[in-house]
Every structure is written in structure tokens, then in C-alpha cells.
Design brief:
Distance between the termini: 49 Å
Number of helices: 4
Radius of gyration: 17 Å
Shape: globular
Structural class: alpha+beta
Order of helices and strands: HHEEEEHEHEEEEE
Strand order of the largest sheet: 1-4-10-5
Length: 232
């Protein structure tokens, strides 16, 4: 455990990091954002700008954070669209699981989209305020009654409050999802974001990730994906 004074210093450091990133956001007229959003109504438009990748200074609870996780780093992400829900991106439907990375990639491509990068996924989850959890209005608080761990009977959007501040659903809890990002250059393992199979608090965090071999997933109904798209 750490003392209150030390924790208060971590809170101040976290808020300063967030303020620094917020100050670098490019202003974008409301009309322009609405026009871009209207082009892809089944997706969410995420504006360009930096976000904080990784664990924030206040994320020190061993129940939530692994010691090996990288500390928060400012990363710029170009504008993109992301599906509101996991594939098939239709509220009330069951998410599609049991698929290898290549199946997720080709499925997105067949719809004129692509797999999201790990940075795109994490930015959409954290929202413009760089929150710990993908739950708008709950800040950095963990509440497993808002976002619940997926089961074989789960359907997309069944927890209406479980959406990030960018209005993307089921990023905390839910299924865990393939991304386009390899663990390292040339690796056949890819970063997986989203719900932890154990249902732990750790897996509800936006910064949480694991990696899986690309051919993994054929028997795992909880391994899903969602698609992204470039802004043209």
C-alpha cells in the first residue's frame, strides 16, 4: 500500500497528463464532425489527436494492473471510424466468435473496413478524457454492474450504459477482441483487447491487453472482433 500523500501526487500527475493531451486536441467544428459521422452511421467517428496509451499513474491496484504493463505514453492517432458494436455490429445480435485472426481480418475487408489497431481500440475505449474504463460518466471507477462479463448467451448492446465517452459499446467487459497490431514486428501473435476471460477487474480496463497466436480462436466463443475504417 502507499500513503495518501503519495497517491494524491499520482492523482495530480495523472490529471496533468490528461490536461497536456487535451490541450493538444485540434479544434474541429461541430458541423464538420456531424458531416463525417453521417458518412458512416453504423460506426463512430473518432477525431484525430493524441491519447494516453497504457496504464495511468493512478493505476496501481494489483487487482487491476500487471507490474509489467507500460506506463502511460502520449500517442497520436489519425481520425478513424470504429464499429459501435463487435461484429456483426448489430444491436441485439450475438457477437461472432470462434475465429482466427485471418478470419477477422478478411471479414472486415469484405465490408470495406479493416481490423482496428490496438491504439485505435484503446483510444475509442478511453474516450476524450482518457478514462481507465470504457464507461462514460463513471470516470475511473470500476462498476461491474454497468459492464458485465460476456457469456455464451450475451447479445450486443444488452447493457446500454456500457459505452465509452465516444459512444462505443461493450469495450469494458464483453468479449475480448482481435486487433491488427502484432505483438512485435514480424510476429505471428496479435494484440487482443477487451474483456478478460477470468472476469477480473483487470480485464475491464481500456489499457488491458494480451496477445494470441494468429491461428488461435477456433474454439473460443469469447474471442471476437470489431472493424475500423479510414476517414477519407
Amino acid at each position: 500500500e502507499i500513503g495518501k500523500r503519495t497517491y494524491d501526487q499520482l492523482v495530480l500527475k495523472t490529471e496533468q497528463l490528461r490536461a497536456d493531451v487535451q490541450a493538444k486536441q485540434s479544434p474541429q467544428a461541430t458541423e464538420e464532425r456531424e458531416q463525417l459521422q453521417a458518412k458512416q452511421p453504423d460506426m463512430v467517428y473518432i477525431p484525430p489527436g493524441p491519447y494516453l496509451r497504457g496504464k495511468l499513474p493512478t493505476e496501481i491496484d494489483p487487482k487491476q494492473v500487471s507490474a509489467s504493463e507500460d506506463p502511460a505514453t502520449e500517442v497520436f492517432v489519425d481520425a478513424f471510424y470504429i464499429d459501435r458494436f463487435e461484429f456483426p455490429n448489430i444491436q441485439g445480435k450475438k457477437p461472432v466468435g470462434k475465429g482466427a485472426w485471418s478470419r477477422a481480418e478478411t471479414t472486415c475487408e469484405s465490408f470495406g473496413k479493416r481490423l482496428c489497431s490496438a491504439d485505435e481500440w484503446e483510444k475509442a475505449c478511453k474516450g476524450p478524457g482518457n478514462q481507465v474504463f470504457g464507461i462514460a460518466g463513471y470516470g475511473d471507477s470500476f462498476d461491474n454492474s454497468v459492464c458485465v462479463q460476456a457469456t455464451k448467451d450475451s447479445v450486443l448492446g444488452e447493457n446500454p450504459e456500457c459505452q465509452s465517452a465516444y459512444y462505443v459499446y461493450d469495450m469494458s467487459g464483453g468479449n475480448y477482441e482481435w486487433t491488427a497490431t502484432p505483438r512485435s514486428e514480424g510476429s505471428d501473435r496479435y494484440m487482443v483487447k477487451g474483456g478478460d476471460k477470468s472476469g477480473s477487474e483487470k480485464g475491464f480496463r481500456c489499457a488491458y491487453s494480451v496477445d494470441q497466436r494468429g491461428n488461435y480462436g477456433a474454439s473460443d466463443s469469447r474471442l471476437s472482433f470489431r472493424c475500423c475504417k479510414d476517414v477519407e
